[in-house]
Specification:
Helix content: 25-40%
CATH class of the largest domain: Alpha Beta
CATH topology of the largest domain: Rossmann fold
CATH superfamily of the largest domain: P-loop containing nucleotide triphosphate hydrolases
Distance between the termini: 49 Å
Number of strands: 17
Strand content: 15-25%
Number of helices: 13
Largest sheet: 8 strands, mixed
Bound molecules: adenosine-5'-diphosphate
Shape: elongated
Radius of gyration: 23 Å
Order of helices and strands: HEEEEHEHHEHEHEEEEHHEHEHEEEHEHH
Number of domains: 2
């Protein structure tokens, strides 16, 4: 094989405009080869399949290679960086993030997860964001539950409410000051396609993170899809997550699937900040606690929750009524304020 140095040198002059670094330094050049008759081939591994800059980078690479002595033709194939590679790039302190990302400053990213749907994950995410905002924290809420986005409805935000600027998308703002991004705000139609493939969901979430003008935020709450799907894993791999709040209900089944979510966090080394048992009990008119869904399973999960507080939230008809009326911010719960205060005292990796 011929010496590759001049090729590497040529490709080093090509930058990923989003990250402001050479494609060689970012590890985006793979399988580089040069045939005896002067044909150069390589794979350009992108950060996202939807990368709008891929042809720009390929053109620049082609031009740079053709300027090298003896190079007659260039054949570029597109590929994808692995989640690990993307993670190591986004963690690099010297990577100059694009214009928008310079403008955005997100102190901490907190995930709200659940083992399965219908346990109140979105309600808790919304209440938490509202409580943080009330406590004076600049708060964003990214609705990553792409196939069942309920966040806008909880806050009474109308569909199609996102505006685009030159720099990126402007979030909708709730009456309580929470900046919200969701597919339901993007699409005018209330009904979304029922089948979204995993990679598309992951790419949408990445765009919500990267293409939104969040501005300066103390906390970004991310309402994840239920379960431990590819989309949930994509968020864990892609976003600089500080910690997670896991929501469950007392039903045995929810308890079993929630173990998987807790294990995923452990594997990804994401700190569990609180385990919430929602709809834990109902207090009747005499003040008696009734365990409508059976006894609590919180203690059974102690092996996976470590020192994270385990917080019970009762069944509150006023909450579901306010949620249905788009007035979730009118509900103030001491348990949620406690979690919010806890998040505020969690050290931010990106102050
Ligand atoms: P998920 O995001 O887990 O699918 P949601 O937040 O959409 O769940 O909640 C499911 C339903 O349960 C909604 O109708 C919501 O208003 C209701 N709900 C959630 N938490 C409570 C609660 N603590 N008390 C009463 N209703 C609740």
């Amino acid at each position: 094989m011929t010496n590759q140095h001049p090729l590497i040198e040529a490709l080093s002059s090509v930058q990923d405009p989003e990250l402001g670094k050479s494609i060689v330094e970012l590890g985006m050049v793979k399988n580089l080869s040069r045939s005896a008759d002067g044909e150069v081939r390589f794979t350009l591994a992108l950060t996202t399949p939807a990368c709008p800059l891929h042809s720009h980078m390929a053109d620049a690479a082609r031009a740079a290679l053709l300027a090298v002595d003896g190079v007659r033709a260039v054949d570029i194939e597109f590929g994808l960086l692995s989640p690990e590679e993307i993670k190591s790039i986004t963690r690099r302190a010297d990577v100059r993030l694009p214009q928008l990302k310079q403008f955005n400053q997100v102190g901490q990213v907190i995930l709200v997860m659940s083992g399965k749907g219908g346990v109140g994950k979105s309600s808790i995410a919304a209440l938490l964001a509202a409580s943080l905002s009330r406590q004076g924290a600049k708060t964003g809420l990214l609705d990553a539950d792409i196939t069942g986005p309920s966040i806008p409805k909880l806050f009474g935000l109308p569909p199609g409410g996102l505006r685009g600027g030159e720099l990126g998308m402007l979030p909708a703002v709730t009456p309580g000051g929470v900046r919200v991004v969701s597919t339901n705000l993007l699409l005018k139609e209330a009904d979304l396609p029922t089948v979204w493939r995993g990679p598309l969901i992951a790419a949408t979430i990445r765009q919500f993170w990267g293409d939104t003008i969040w501005g300066k935020l103390d906390t970004l709450i991310v309402d994840l899809p239920p379960g431990t799907s590819d989309a949930a894993i994509a968020v864990l791999n892609y976003l600089p997550v500080s910690g997670a709040v896991v929501v469950t209900t007392p039903q045995e089944l929810a308890g079993l699937v929630v173990r998987k979510a807790l294990k995923l966090l452990q594997n990804k080394e994401v700190p569990l900040l609180a385990l919430v048992e929602n709809m834990s009990y109902f207090t009747d008119s005499q003040g008696a606690k009734i365990e409508v869904f059976g006894p609590s399973h919180l203690d059974d999960l102690a092996d996976l929750t470590g020192s994270a507080p385990r917080i019970q939230i009762p069944i509150l008809p006023a909450l579901s009524q306010a949620a249905d009326a788009g007035a979730v911010e009118t509900i103030h719960l001491p348990e949620i304020d406690r979690i919010a205060a806890l998040l505020r005292s969690t050290p931010s990796p990106n102050p």
